[in-house]
Amino acid sequence: MFPPQLYTRREILKSVSSGVGYLAFAALAHQQARAEAVAGGKPLDPKLPHFKARAKRVIFLSMQGAPSHIDTFDYKPQLAKDHGKAGRTAGARGGTLMGSKWEFKQRGKSGLWISELFPNVARMADELCMLNGMHTDIPNHPQAQVQMHTGSFQFVRPSLGAWTLYGLGTENANLPGFVALNPGAGNAQHIGSAFLPAIYQGTPFGNGGRRRFARGGNQEVRIPNIKNPNLTKDQQRAQLDFIQKLNEEKLRREQHQPGVEGVIESYELAFRMQDELPELMDINRESKETLDLYGIDGSETDGFGRQCLLARRFAEEGVRFVELTHGNWDHHRNLSQDLPARCREIDKPIAGLLEDLKRRDMLKDTLVVWAGEFGRTPHAQGGDGRDHNNKGYTTWMAGGGVKGGFSYGATDEYGYEAVDGRLHIHDWHATILHALGLDHEKLTYRHAGRDFRLTDVHGNVAHDIFA
After folding, report:
1. pLDDT of residue 228
2. Which Pfam families does the record cross-reference, listed alphabetically (predicted)?
């Protein structure tokens, strides 16, 4: 709910014509809790980390549906040997063991084991830090997704991106500090700020679904009403100056009105965004070589390639946290066809992103994170599928000071349960914040009578993964 001193949506849209009006209301959603924001200075001003940071920003590649780790990044030769046998371990749960259908090879100078499903990502093996000992609490998609993003599957809590922005601020006052590309319908909690001031929540671009980024076009990621069809820029400035004078007069009379301060800041941000966003999101300015690098060619890689390229552009312009979403990884059946299809859609774009960041000297201080909400079982489901498995799975990181060509942790011989270098989601969050120079125990916010943090009362940093 907006505080009573703020204008209603109808009043905002009546007072400011369409272009600025839409953006102002969007920005106002970020400003509605301005009174709670950091005292002294603006809430999104850059802040010093707790200690020297390895990474300045995060690009989070979120794979919704839980990719099969034992078919992609967790090589299990014993599972292949025992293919077709009745499982005698807890991991098989009485089912029939199913080895991977795809060949694994050691890649790069480091010799990381990577499946043939990712030939392009495999070229970047020496940049990857595999986390093979992941585990989480719930083997159910909605709860596990929320926990991966917020640290809790039971309560509404701020997202990882919101905590990052709260802790560090942003480097570009003309753009949102936390951007979510193609977040998907119904996933507001994944990018929400919960009890943190609303200015720290993610700004979504695109409206969900694996294929929402149209081939040959980029319409779905454009902001509606970014152009004012009725007024020139000078006319909008004059109109906005008049409205701001009224707001400032009210502020002068009443001395302290956080809501009015929020309106003033929101309108100005919205006006500035009109200039910067269209140019930033116009990928046609990129060279053909760059578009080809990301697989933006009208093929199956086109959609996710656009997301990856936009992520690089946002990161380059100072956005602190960029999240990309790719769906349909829930393969209870038709694994042999659907898993390769999903991998083909992201393999070249992700490799292109890593290569592009590296050649621009950005990978060293950009933490790229790839993760699903859990993994899959070593036993077959219906002959050509795998069930949910929260006891062991793989995520990976690259750049941002982590060791490249490095494998940390392990699951058992069948890939069912994490047995070494175990990382719970709380540990994973603590480690990501550590890369950004943030102490997860000190990054707190006072709410409901106590200090809250992303990792609650848990979390240990995996110090061994850092170079």
Report:
1. 76
2. DUF1501
Average pLDDT over residues 224-237: 77
Q: Tell me the C-alpha distance between 134 and 422, whole Å.
A: 6
Residue 415 in tokens: 């890939």
- Number of domains comprising the chain: 1
**Separation of alpha carbons 62 and 44, rounded Å:** 25
Rounded-to-integer distance, Cα 240 and Cα 27, Å: 15
In one-letter notation, the amino acid at residue 342 is R
Tell me the C-alpha distance between 13 and 331, whole Å.
Answer: 45
Indicate whether 210 pLDDT > 70.
no
Region 319-333 average pLDDT = 97
Give the amino acid at 393. Answer: Y
35 residue type, one letter: A
Taking CA atoms, 11 is separated from 16, 126, 134, 253, 415, in Å, by 9, 55, 49, 21, 57
Residue showing tokens 């994490």? 418
Give domain status of residue 268, yes or no. no
CATH number, domain at 413? Answer: 3.40.720.10
Look at residues 95, 73, 132 and name the one whose alpha carbon lies nearest to residue 377.
Answer: 95
pTM value is: 0.85
Residue 381 included in any domain: yes
Report if residue 436 sits inside a domain.
yes
β-strands 393-398, 128-135: how paired?
antiparallel
Residue 247 lies inside a defined structural domain of this protein:
no
- 42 burial class (0-12, 13-18, 19+ CB within 10 angstroms)? middle
- Number of other residues whose CB lies within 10 A of the CB of residue 248: 13
pLDDT at 231: 81
Token representation of residue 133: 């000992």
Between the CA of residue 301 and those of 291, 293, 354, what are the distances in Å?
Answer: 11, 11, 15
Between the alpha carbon of residue 5 and those of residues 42, 100, 248, 263, 274, the distances in Å are 20, 60, 14, 10, 26
The span from the CA of 382 to the CA of 385, in Å, is 6
Helix, strand, coil tally for the chain in percent (to 5): 40, 15, 45
Per the structure, the complete domain to which residue 460 belongs is given by: 55-222+298-465
Cα 203 to Cα 1, 154, 222: the distances in Å are: 18, 24, 12
Tell me the C-alpha distance between 295 and 277, whole Å: 23
Neighbours of 174 (CB within 10 A): 17
Gap between the Cα atoms of 89 and 109, Å rounded? 35
